[in-house]
Amino acid sequence: MSLEKVNYKKFIAPLVVGILLWVLSPVRPVGLSIGAWHMFAIFVATIIGCITQPLPIGGVAILGFTIAVLTHEIPIDTAIAGFGNSSIWLIVMAFFISRGFIKTGLGRRIALEFVGLFGKRTLGLAYSLIGVDLILAPATPSNTARAGGIMYPIINSLSEAFGSSPKQGTQRKIGSFLMFAEFHGDMITAAMFLTAMAGNPLAQSLAKSMGVHITWMNWFIAGVVPGIISLILVPFIIYKMFPPEIKETPNAKQWSESQLKEMGALSLPEKFMAGIFIVALLLWVTGSLTGIDATLTAFIALSLLLLCGVLSWSDVTHETGAWNTLTWFSVLVMMATQLNTQGFIPWLSKQIAGAMSGLNWIIVLIVLILAYFYSHYLFASATAHVSAMYSALLGVAISAHVPAMLAALMLGFFSNLFSSTTHYSNGPAPILFGSGYVSQNDWWRMNAILAFVYFIVWIGIGSLWMKLIGMW
Question: How far apart are CA 227 and CA 461, in angstroms?
Answer without folding.
Answer: 10
